[in-house]
């Protein structure tokens, strides 16, 4: 085989896969969003934006992302630093911390529902300790703050491991000579972390934050399990348009709105954590 054609032959399967399972469906969704029986129109977007639940679901989605992602970033950085410094049991600890990666979104929501529901672990513990006289239904419209906290905790527990794996791999690529030189010159552990680890982790931080923020905007199953209709989010409204209201045009428009928000957040992250051209580890 011609050596010039080999790279193109190697990427051909991936290209065909992306075209078949990403580009083609995207074109269909865009067509549904921007057209009706009368041709090109923005009516689907007007319907979505003017619906009374849209500002609430947008606010809830952005608020959940703003609350969860920074906590997950801090936790993953702490956990990754701890793992890389361990001499024994590193693989075991990393394995235990990444167990939630093997659990689906809905299963994670149901696990935390078993903790917060009226007959769940939290109520049983508080009743056994005498904090409450009888088990109470915690996840109701009367406790919107608690519903938000339950969803946030479930998301933090479920998805922190994704960022952890990426950051552990990034820290592993940083040459140890940098840390040894900094230690010789008397740099404290905090200074070594701020002056060496964080700057060198920019590419990994970019990847981890982009993936996690996009996932945060697409949160659905955990919210459905714990909050239901008490905590509307953008992806939940997309599902409602498609399967409850049978309005595929509005569902497609909502999907494109989520895509636009995800792209905007991605550009902001890439700009904030941009890596200088030609920089290498």
TrEMBL record:
Keyword list, A-Z: Cell membrane, Membrane, Sugar transport, Transmembrane, Transmembrane helix, Transport
The primary location reported for this protein is membrane
Determine if Membrane is one of this entry's keywords. yes
The ABC transmembrane type-1 domain, residue ranges? 58-269
Give GO cellular component annotations, separated by semicolons: plasma membrane
In the record, biological process GO terms are: transmembrane transport
Q: What is this protein called?
A: Multiple sugar transport system permease protein
Which source organism does the UniProt entry give? Marinovum algicola
């Amino acid at each position: 085989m011609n050596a010039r054609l080999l790279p193109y032959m190697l990427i051909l399967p991936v290209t065909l896969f992306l075209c078949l399972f990403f580009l083609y469906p995207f074109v269909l969704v865009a067509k549904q969003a921007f057209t009706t029986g009368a041709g090109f129109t923005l009516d689907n977007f007007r319907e979505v934006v003017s619906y009374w639940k849209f500002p609430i679901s947008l606010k809830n989605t952005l608020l959940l992302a703003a609350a969860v992602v920074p906590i997950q970033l801090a936790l993953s950085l702490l956990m990754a630093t701890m793992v890389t410094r361990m001499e024994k049991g590193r693989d075991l600890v990393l394995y235990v911390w990444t167990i939630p990666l093997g659990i689906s979104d809905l299963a994670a929501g149901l696990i935390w529902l078993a903790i917060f529901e009226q007959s769940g672990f939290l109520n049983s513990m508080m009743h056994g300790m005498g904090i409450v006289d009888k088990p109470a239904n915690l996840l109701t419209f009367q406790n919107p703050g608690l519903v938000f906290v339950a969803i946030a905790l479930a998301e933090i527990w479920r998805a922190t491991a994704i960022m952890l794996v990426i950051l552990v791999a990034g820290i592993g690529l940083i040459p140890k000579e940098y840390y040894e030189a900094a230690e010789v010159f008397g740099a404290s552990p905090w200074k070594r972390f701020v002056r060496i680890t964080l700057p060198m982790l920019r590419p990994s931080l970019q990847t981890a934050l982009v993936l996690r923020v996009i996932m945060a905007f697409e949160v659905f199953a955990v919210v459905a399990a714990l909050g239901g209709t008490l905590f509307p989010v953008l992806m939940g409204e997309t599902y409602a348009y498609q399967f409850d209201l049978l309005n595929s045009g509005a569902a497609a428009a909502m999907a494109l709105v989520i895509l636009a928000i995800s792209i905007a957040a991605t550009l902001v992250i890439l700009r904030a954590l941009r890596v200088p051209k030609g920089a290498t580890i």
